[in-house]
Fold:
Amino acid sequence: MLDIELLLILFPAFIAGIIILSTHVVLGRQVLKRGIIFIDLAIAQVAALGAIVAHMDHRIEDIPYSHVWMPAIFALGGAGLIAWLSKRFADELEAFIGCFYVLSAVGAMLLLSNDPHGAELLKQLMSGQILWVNWSQLVLPALVSVAILALIALKPQILEGAGFYFLFAIVITLSVELVGVYLVFSTLILPALALNQYVGKYTLLLAYVVGFVGYLAGLILSASYDLPSGAAIVAALAVSAVLMRLLLRNRSNKAEM
Structure:
């Protein structure tokens, strides 16, 4: 049984998940539509590289909010490069994005190779610490998410042009800080993938349901069985996505009979 104290610990983490889902489900569908599956991993890894650079240079680390604006600079720079590549090397874009991710990951490993706390920082950036997020950490991501969703609602065409890459970079920067690279990728891709073959009403709503169930189940499993929170949520999201896809396929097969 979950006691009240445990529920109070889980609640900020769950709200963090809802904030992440609010933008990632929309952007994840666009990622699949464009066929650039690894862009989220690449931009997330570049943002993590920016956080590592800030950590390595104490002059930067001591500047207020360097943990936010430094990763943002790197992510926006990466997004700008990918937007430029998309216009000139469209047929090879996914390959370039993959190389971009690998080079960013290698750069992070090299920078942290002689840092005594490097392995711990790298693990935190990859897996995240969503279970221990506090309310103050949620204010900025919540405000930015509301602003981005309002912009998409007012100007949906922004998702079709180069502006998508810059929106993506801003969202990913804040998400990596909260939940880590692996969970950012899973939140973008798994709900979108669950509904990718579905043609019908409420597609977006059902994608949100996949994410909602995944985060809730993952957090409960993590707290109940002392599992790594990021890994538990990723696994729960995968199960939720598979179940939704099977359910919709079964429903479609019945409708055709």
Observations:
- The chain is about 80% helix and 0% strand.
